[in-house]
Amino acid sequence: MSSWVPFISALTAFFLSHAIPARAPVRARLVTVLGQKGYLLAYSSLSVIVLAWLIVAAANAPYVEVIPPWPTLRWVPLVVMPVVCWLAVAGLAISNPFSFGGLGTAGFAPDRPGILRTTRHPLLAALMLWAGAHLLANGSLSHVILFGLFAGFAALGMALIDRRTVRSLGADWPRLSRNTARFSLRAPSPWPPLHVWLASLAVFAVLIGLHGAVIGVSPLP
């Protein structure tokens, strides 16, 4: 008979693996021992391993229905995930002084913030939408806890990063952020270039193709 112990253990490990290394004294010590790149590699590897454990544990936890498995809800991820992929790719393709993830080399222009006009945190916004869509499509108690945790983490992360950035930018914050939003429905200005849209579609197609093999469930209703 299935038990809640593996899921609770994985959930506890997830919290600890993110809370402990993020503490300033612990992080400083680890960076001293491992180096900056070594720390990031170790932290990322641990996060992926614990996340995989948590996902498997949630799938194997006892089934307790919270949201009925209505067929219509199976369409929610298919509708939302193209937006998630677009946000993630667009967020990685720019320079972002407000949040993490921006890998673009072009400087940030306050009058032309691009995707940052929609959200200053494209990756966290993508995580929040991904979690919310999958929560509706997987309404068991373990999945509601899992995806609710990710959605809450993303929303809280936006607020905490904004507060930290306001302190770090000081008097420059009003000037730099005037055309941006934490999370909104405003269209980007300018819109991302064509290669961002094509890359987003490619990522979505890969996720559709691998979902059944990796997760064990087809994403198609």
Secondary-structure blueprint of this entry?
Blueprint: H1 5-22, H2 24-34, H3 36-60, H4 75-92, H5 122-137, H6 141-169, H7 173-177, H8 194-215
Helix pairs in contact: 1-3, 2-3, 4-5, 4-8, 5-6
Quick synopsis:
The protein is mostly helical and 221 residues long. It is built from eight helices and no strands.
Protein traits:
8 helices; mainly alpha
Protein described:
With 221 residues, the protein is mostly helical. 65% of the residues lie in helices and 0% in strands. It has eight helices and no strands. The chain has helices at residues 5-22, 24-34, 36-60, 75-92, 122-137, 141-169, 173-177, 194-215. Helix 2 crosses helix 3, helix 4 packs across helix 8 and helix 5 (122-137) runs antiparallel to helix 6. The radius of gyration is 19 Å and the shape is globular. The two termini are 29 Å apart. The mean pLDDT is 90.
Helix content: 55-70%
- Rounded to the nearest angstrom, the radius of gyration is 19 Å
**Could you say which overall geometry the principal axes of the C-alpha atoms support?**
globular
What can be said about the biggest beta sheet? none
> What is the count of β-strands?
0
